[in-house]
Design a protein that fits this description.
The complex is a heterodimer of chains A (794) and B (343).
Chain A: E1 2-4, H1 5-9, H2 18-27, E2 32-36, E3 42-54, E4 62-67, E5 72-77, E6 87-96, E7 105-107, E8 110-112, E9 114-116, H3 146-150, E10 156-159, H4 171-182, H5 190-193, E11 214-217, E12 222-231, H6 240-248, H7 256-268, E13 273-276, E14 284-289, E15 295-297, E16 303-305, E17 311-314, E18 319-322, E19 326-327, E20 340-347, H8 349-359, H9 364-369, H10 376-391, E21 395-396, E22 400-403, E23 412-415, H11 417-423, H12 429-438, E24 442-447, E25 450-454, H13 465-476, H14 496-510, E26 514-515, E27 521-522, H15 525-532, E28 542-543, E29 554-555, H16 560-570, E30 574-585, E31 589-600, H17 612-629, E32 634-637, E33 643-653, E34 656-664, H18 666-672, E35 678-684, E36 705-714, H19 719-730, E37 734-743, E38 752-761, H20 770-788, E39 791-792
Parallel strand pairs in A: 11-14, 26-30
Antiparallel strand pairs in A: 1-10, 2-10, 3-4, 3-6, 4-5, 6-9, 7-8, 12-20, 12-21, 12-22, 13-20, 14-17, 15-16, 17-18, 18-19, 23-25, 24-25, 27-29, 28-29, 30-31, 31-35, 32-33, 33-34, 34-35, 36-38, 36-39, 37-38
Helix pairs in contact in A: 6-7, 7-10, 11-13, 14-17, 19-20
Chain B: H1 3-20, H2 24-35, H3 40-46, H4 56-90, H5 110-124, E1 128-129, E2 135-137, H6 138-141, E3 166-168, H7 174-182, E4 187-196, E5 208-219, H8 223-238, E6 244-251, E7 254-263, E8 282-291, H9 293-298, E9 306-314, H10 315-323, H11 330-333, H12 336-339
Parallel strand pairs in B: 1-4
Antiparallel strand pairs in B: 2-3, 4-5, 5-9, 6-7, 7-8, 8-9
The chains are: A alpha+beta (794), B alpha+beta (343).
The structure holds zinc ion.
């Protein structure tokens, strides 16, 4: 919210230093996002053109005689909008304007004694003000300093107001807060100090307006509606002081009526609406639900077909505006308007928010109403507007309130100990009362332990003791909160999932993998690539209903695509990993935490039945799982949509799949533009069992002996099957059996392969002899022959 | 041949063999062939039995003397060879500035490193670390956090929706609720994790980001305990001189609420032309506050007995500040040149 400091000064005395004001505001919960620096202007005074003549040597120049209060200046100007009698800003010799300093200079032989100023030279937006020389109001005292008069060089604060403090979304609201924080007296315009907040013209009967407007409230979402009638209205340009303030606050001046409603909204916080009363059927306004299909054209010529969800203000014939959002075109105030009805109403915030959201129509008014304004703002807004309209020559009739009376928020029973209990520092009952009273709260002390705290009319947001604590903290200063360490009571909450992620990450980093973090949303191209490669994703992707862009429409279904993008981009051997969630839509939306790691290697050489890279990724996966669980894994052949059909394995722990590994399908590599073969492992984090604490076994103190044997088996016999037969046949004496080499070729025959095994043999009660070892090998060979048809390779 | 001659001749051959033995293996061969169980000395010794009885003791002594001298010579030769090897080894010299081959170690992402440091700090202070789903119903994201439908504060959470009531969490706060649902007080947890908001991506914003949530609810927990805990956290992350400041703010699920700042680690709070803090001397960490009584009540925690605080900070911001990274997008672009700097 843009807050011209000059406008704030209307209500209280403030530091000359904008930074000090900004810091003060921040300290009580209103941070200043930016301080908009105004140009340092000087030497501009109010002048009146008393005579005007043509420049003797230049057709396009005129020479004005300007009364600047006590003296006259001769000033040349090229502006075409000047006329005798106009009151204008005059930059005298030595004056500093936005981009020039005024010096004596000759214009075609004539020495001008200053310069008549336009909006631009005073740092005002030119498109919001008259072309040419600015026109000040009649009666502006001649000779006065224009810069001071309009606060043209005072900075503008961009203040952030949190959504719970709609009462402070106004100049007056922030002035109130600053007054409480600084202990400076607030000075209000007369109409806002009157206890009843009613302003009407002299001679108008205060008790009733017989020709006034009737209001019927048919919806509970309109709690209060103040209506006031004005006659003798003339639509014209608003006074300069008002236009300047609006412009500095970022609001474009339009005409005196629009400007007054904007001015009151920015100053007091209450949005207003003026109806051309001649256009209101039955002089009767009704706050009601829109009828289904009811049509409305708003002030900005937007056309709506409404539903009963919308709350409208209607007359006896048609909807005349969207309650709290925007007025209707039909009863818009025009140059012909002479009699108006003012609306200052209070609406349900949620109702306004829903309507505004469903129509896609947000306005300055709706952003305030949707936070539910304090009801008292209706009376304040009407009173302030009435005073300004009367100053514009209108006759104000008595305001008529409809709906609920304005009531003070309920008193809060406040235990004094809550200050210490929640804030960690103590205050006396007197100190607490002083802070709260500064903010307009009423405080009484029914007991030494408790206070009864009644919020002011504009603070219905304060409802419980914790709210009061915050008010006290703001006033006492958040810097009073001490710096202490809490006593932490023991609790039973486990950290297992986090530890698992942390330990996997550390293990993978130790194995040489670099962690990446990639975006979880992707576009459809990932699925198109799968489809083009002739592969089916296992489940439909999860789609975002309201994506920001097409390439962020889907939640990732796997970690792999980002790995492939990485390898396509880097095009060199590398090892990477990522831990994150993947998503799929099956019966319901599924979210699965995964850890994936992958590497790209130089194109492999060697026989088609051997792939060392596959063994490396499998080995890494087995190592990681062992480190995490203390358990062994079993690899079984498997199929996955994205993996090479002959190079995929599921990894089982205790018979349950916890991970799978494999080579990426070459068709998919091609679709992703990856040149190098890629191997990947994916682990289901939620399936990884707890770490099993190992039991120590006393190692045999007798030496062991090793035997390597090579056997020829059918190609269908897996290494695992061979190992299992060996282990079973050898028995306890066999401490380790491992296939470590494979050979295929003419020497071993068609459909056969040679596997070389390593056996470590050891006995627990004596040294194993050669004869013992030979007997084991004989047993093993016999079993391999009978179970797998194996022969010893000689 | 006389025994003495026999021994002299044997000794001469032994000395020659010793001279030729240039390594421990050959030395051992010499030992075995002369002094071993079936070596030459043994053969000579066997010959003693053929001698007359009265000559046998002196012959035995003679042989023993020779053996002792041979063993001494062997030991000396062994020592000399050892010294020679040491000298050879010690005479080697290399260029120690020659670059080492690349480390086989991988790396952790800076977000992981910061997360681990934060969680490590909180675990040492008795907090558990819990993780939660990224897809959450609006109940956990909003309603249970005192943000009913149509509440103005929902505006601050421009979220990605999957169904009418299911969304990508815009903050980690749903885990406050899940934790209090699952455990009675006291609870002390932190929650790191991914969050999502419909923000356009630029140097400082990302639609996906990481938060760390903190929640402590117990008896006698006050706002000052939050300041103390966070001061320690910032010191752990940025160094021993960090201070923490609270500024009043508003969040529906805390009351009172505060924005938390810490001293800018780059300019040490001096401000001025510092680009990291834009001259304020402070770095914004995020929101915090005392858990709102409505939230406690809904979790069936008695707000008159239990009090607590919560906070939620962006981890990216902490990483950017700590490592002096200029653009948040670098965290998710996964350039090898970027990742390698954190190994
Ligand atoms: Zn700094």
């Amino acid at each position: 919210m843009k807050v011209p400091i000059a406008w704030l000064r209307e209500f209280l005395e403030l530091s000359q230093d904008p930074n000090a004001i900004a810091e003060r505001l921040a300290s009580i919960g209103f941070p200043v996002a930016a301080i908009e620096k105004r140009p340092a202007l000087s030497g501009v005074v109010v002048g009146k053109i008393v005579a005007l003549e043509k420049h003797p040597n230049a057709d396009r120049l005129q020479i004005g005689t300007v009364d600047v209060g006590g003296s006259t200046l001769s000033i040349a100007t090229a502006a075409t909008n000047v006329a005798t009698g106009q009151i204008i800003p005059v930059a005298t010799i030595g004056a500093q304007l936005t981009s020039v300093k005024i010096e004596r200079r000759k214009m075609r032989g004539f020495e001008s004694e200053g310069m008549m100023c336009s909006a631009d030279e005073l740092g005002l937006p030119t498109e919001w003000f008259e072309d040419g020389i600015l026109q000040l109001d009649e009666g502006t005292p001649l000779g006065q300093d224009v810069v001071l008069l309009f606060g043209l060089s005072e900075d503008v604060l961009d203040v952030e107001v949190t959504s719970n403090r709609v009462d402070a979304m106004s100049i007056l609201g922030l002035a109130r807060e600053l007054s409480a924080a600084t202990g400076t007296q607030l000075s209000l315009p007369a109409e806002l100090t009157a206890p009843q907040l009613r302003v009407s013209s002299p001679g108008v009967r205060a008790d009733d307006d017989l020709e006034g407007v009737r209001v019927t409230i048919e919806s509970p979402d309109c709690s209060r509606f103040v209506v006031q009638r004005f006659t003798g209205v003339r639509v014209r340009t608003a006074p300069m002081w008002m236009r300047v303030r609006l412009a500095l606050a970022g609001q474009r001046p339009i005409n005196n009526l629009v400007d007054i409603s904007n001015y009151v909204m920015l100053e007091v916080g209450q949005p207003l609406h003026f109806y051309d009363l001649a256009k209101i059927a039955g002089r009767h306004l009704v706050a009601r639900d829109a009828r289904d299909g009811e049509e409305l054209t708003t002030l900005d010529d937007a056309h709506f077909a409404l539903t009963p969800q919308a709350l409208v203000i209607a007359d006896e014939e048609r909807a005349q505006g969207l309650a709290g959002i925007k007025g209707g075109k039909f009863s818009e105030v025009t140059a012909q308007t002479r009699e108006i009805a003012l609306e200052a109403a209070n609406f349900s915030g949620p109702r306004v928010r829903r309507t505004s959201a469903s129509l896609g129509l947000r306005t300055e008014a709706s952003t305030r109403h949707e936070k539910t304004l304090p009801a008292v703002f209706t009376d304040m807004g009407a009173a302030r507007a009435a005073a300004l309209l009367v100053a514009e020559g209108a006759t104000a009739y008595a305001p008529r309130p409809f709906g609920h009376a304005v009531e003070r928020p309920a008193a809060v029973d406040f235990p004094i100990r809550d200050v210490a209990r929640l804030l960690g520092f103590t205050l006396t009952a007197d100190e607490i009362s002083k802070h709260l009273r500064a903010l307009g709260f009423e405080v009484t002390a029914p007991s030494p332990e408790r206070l009864t705290v009644t919020p002011p009319l504009w603070r219905p947001d304060v409802a419980i003791a914790a709210d009061v604590v915050e008010e006290i903290a703001r006033m006492a200063g958040y810097d009073n909160v001490p710096t202490e360490l809490p006593p932490i009571a023991p609790h039973e909450i486990p950290s297992r999932a986090y530890h698992l992620e942390r330990d996997i990450a550390r293990t993978l980093a130790a194995l040489g993998y670099a962690e990446i973090v990639s975006y979880s949303l992707n576009g459809g191209e990932t699925f198109e690539r799968l489809a083009r490669a002739g592969l089916d994703p296992s489940a439909p992707p999860v789609e975002i209903r309201n994506p920001l862009s097409e390439d962020q429409r889907y939640l990732r279904h796997a970690l792999g695509p980002r790995f492939l993008e990485y390898f396509a981009r880097t095009d060199r051997p590398a090892k990477i990993f990522e831990i994150g969630h993947v998503f799929a839509k099956r019966d319901h939306i599924e979210e699965t935490p995964m850890a994936g790691f992958a590497f790209a290697v130089e194109t492999k050489s060697g026989p088609s039945w051997r792939d060392d890279a596959f063994l490396r990724i499998k080995g890494d996966a087995e190592s990681v799982i062992h480190a995490l669980t203390g358990r062994e894994t079993e690899a079984v052949p498997d199929r996955r949509a994205t993996l090479h059909p002959g190079k995929t394995a599921a990894l089982l722990v205790d018979g349950k799949e916890v991970a799978f590994v494999g080579a990426i399908d070459p068709r998919l590599l091609h679709e992703f533009g990856v040149r190098l073969p890629v191997y990947v492992a994916s682990m289901y984090l939620e399936r990884i069992p707890e770490f099993r604490t190992p039991r120590f076994r006393v190692p045999s103190r007798f030496p062991s002996t090793d035997r390597d044997i090579a056997v020829i088996v059918s190609r269908d016999a897996s290494a695992k099957a061979v190992q299992d037969v060996v282990a079973r046949a050898a028995g306890d004496v066999c401490k380790e059996v491992r296939v470590f080499d494979e050979y295929r070729g003419p020497q071993v025959g068609e459909g056969r392969k040679s596997l070389t095994l390593h056996l470590a043999l050891q006995m627990d009660d004596r040294t194993i002899t050669d004869a013992d070892a030979d007997a084991v090998v004989d047993r093993v060979l016999a079993a391999l022959e009978s179970d797998l048809g194996a022969t010893l390779r000689s | 041949m006389r025994l003495e001659d026999e021994l002299r001749e044997l000794r001469a051959r032994f000395d020659a063999a010793l001279e030729r033995a240039a390594d421990p293996k050959h030395l051992d061969e010499v030992r075995v062939s002369f002094l071993g169980r079936s070596g030459e000395v043994t053969t000579v010794r066997r010959g003693i039995g053929k001698l007359p009885g009265d000559e046998r003791p002196s012959a035995g002594k003679t042989i023993n003397d020779v053996v002792a001298s041979m063993e001494a010579a062997l030991g000396e030769r062994e020592g000399a060879l050892q010294r020679a090897r040491f000298e050879t080894s010690l005479s080697e010299s290399i260029d120690v500035t020659f670059p080492a081959p690349p480390s086989p170690l991988g790396s952790l992402h800076p977000i992981r490193i910061v997360t681990n440091d934060l969680c490590g700090y909180f675990e040492r202070h008795g907090f558990a670390v819990v993780l939660g789903p990224e897809i959450e119903p609006d109940y956990y994201n909003f309603d249970a956090l005192n943000i009913p439908a149509d509440h103005p504060a929902r505006e601050g959470f421009d979220s990605f929706y999957l169904t009418e009531h299911l969304l990508l969490r815009p903050h980690t706060s749903p885990m406050q609720i899940r934790t209090m649902e699952d455990y009675p007080p006291p609870v002390a947890v932190v929650v790191p994790g991914k969050c999502y908001r419909r923000d356009a991506v630029d140097a400082r914003h990302s639609y996906m980001f990481h938060q760390i949530e903190g929640l402590l609810v117990a008896k006698d927990v006050h706002f000052g305990h939050l300041k103390g805990t966070l001061t320690g956290m910032c010191r752990k992350l940025f160094g021993p001189d960090q201070a923490v400041r609270f500024r009043p703010s508003y969040f529906p699920f805390t009351e009172p609420s505060a924005e938390v700042d810490t001293t800018c680690p780059r300019c040490r709070g001096a401000g001025g032309p510092c680009r990291m803090c834009s001259g304020s001397g402070w770095i914004e960490l995020g929101g915090s506050g005392m858990v709102h009584p409505n939230v406690l009540q809904q979790m069936e925690y008695d707000p008159d007995i239990y009090s607590g605080w919560a906070f939620g900070f962006g981890i990216e911001r902490l990483a950017l500040v700590r490592y002096d990274i200029d653009d948040i997008r670098r965290l998710f672009e996964n350039q090898p040149e970027f990742l390698a700097q954190f190994s």
